[in-house]
Design goal:
The chain has 371 residues and is an alpha+beta fold. The protein folds into 3 domains: 6-112, Acyl-CoA dehydrogenase/oxidase, N-terminal domain (Butyryl-Coa Dehydrogenase, subunit A, domain 1, Orthogonal Bundle); 114-219, Butyryl-CoA Dehydrogenase, subunit A, domain 2 (Beta Barrel), CATH 2.40.110.10; 223-369, Butyryl-CoA Dehydrogenase, subunit A, domain 3 (Up-down Bundle), CATH 1.20.140.10. The chain is 51% helix and 15% strand. The strands form 3 sheets. A 4-stranded mixed beta sheet has the order 1-4-5-8, covered by helices on one side. It has a 4-stranded antiparallel beta sheet with strand order 2-3-7-6, with helices on one face. The longest helix is centred in the middle third of the chain and has 37 residues, at 222-258. The structure holds flavin-adenine dinucleotide. The site of flavin-adenine dinucleotide has 22 residues, from β1, β3 and α11. Flavin-adenine dinucleotide binds at residues 82, 115-118, 123-124, 148-150, 192, 195, 200, 349, 352-356, 358-359, 362.
Length: 371
Amino acid sequence: MSCFDFETIDRLARCVLAPHSKRWDRDGIFPRAALKILAEHGLFGLRIATDLGGSGASCETLVRVIEAIARHDAGVALTLAAHSLVCDHLRWFGTPQQQQQYLPDLARGEKLGAWALAESGSGSDAASIRCRAEKNEDGWLLNGRKMFVTQGNWAGLYVVLARTSDERRNAVSAFLVDPASPGVQAGPALEKMGCRSSNTCPLSLKNVQIADQALLGEEGRALSAALTLLDQGRIAISALACGLIRACLEDATRHAKRRQQFGRPIAQFQAIQWMLADMATEHEAAWLLTHHAAQLADTGASCGIAGAKAKLFSSRSAVACADRAVQIFGGYGYLKNVAVERYYRDAKVCEIGEGTSEIQRLVIARDLLRE
Ligand SMILES: Cc1cc2nc3c(=O)[nH]c(=O)nc-3n(C[C@H](O)[C@H](O)[C@H](O)COP(=O)(O)OP(=O)(O)OC[C@H]3O[C@@H](n4cnc5c(N)ncnc54)[C@H](O)[C@@H]3O)c2cc1C
């Protein structure tokens, strides 16, 4: 059950995000003030327990919120999804002390969480990361460089994954890192194709001394923890894709009814109707796959394969629907000040972030072929 009124969330996104999305996209602005308003409505603590300042909402609630936000600004939805990954890491693998220390601030959005796994030499092959954490008498010494850290320039807390032994390829551990620690340096924001209201940057860690208590979860087990986290993270990206499909469908339908050619609205041409029909069908299918995966997550059942299928389908559909939306707008869809041009660029990230489409297929095929 949800304590959220989704019409209110939709209205909130329409009022707080929609009027500014074009400018944030054009100038690559991270909308801190708008995020604060969303935080005041509890959107940064959705899955955090009520006694830690969150609303203890379900995965289904999270996907509905992300879809509603992505309908108006996919970059903001990406911020929310990345923050949620850090909250989940703490919720599932943190000690009670770590949860007490960090989750209330994360729930209120006073701190944004950023999750740093990827490196310049390690993306899909997460086990090949080179960032290291060496044990010493004061705790751990971190050294390395991370890449593609979502909200890395704005985070109040990093979860950094680092190698803690060379004996096993998978010997990776997770650490809670304060951005103000000496030796932590977030690099300049990366210039992205889309989702430009989200912030993405490299992160450098040079002799960063952290305490023993900063170890998050079991030593050497963070990669299996990451797989569990990404099972739900992918459902969130699938919801983001659904929001974009809805945006494409609504904008394209409105335009098709208004735009006149050959003396009639282009909506009367069968070619246009078929594109709209395909978009509506794909939106429903993507939405059902996403909800099915979220429902599995909520019952505690394994949701990895369902999440991979949802993300694979929804991401591909978002890219295809953005393409159709631009086509329906014709030359106007190719112009910077028309939103479908932004959706076209925003949608692509869904096929890359939190595991590329190829990796989703790998996960699905492995399950099919398992003896
Ligand atoms: C906007 C954005 C935000 C991001 N945010 C974060 C974040 O907050 N934290 C974080 O840790 N990471 C983040 N990432 C990184 C993201 O998770 C990686 O980009 C993604 O996992 C792919 O890794 P890669 O870019 O190194 O590509 P690569 O792994 O180098 O892949 C390149 C190509 O090879 C294909 N490929 C690779 N391996 C295989 C295989 N075994 N079989 C078939 N094909 C394969 C891929 O599918 C892809 O097409 C973000 C990325 C982007 C673009």
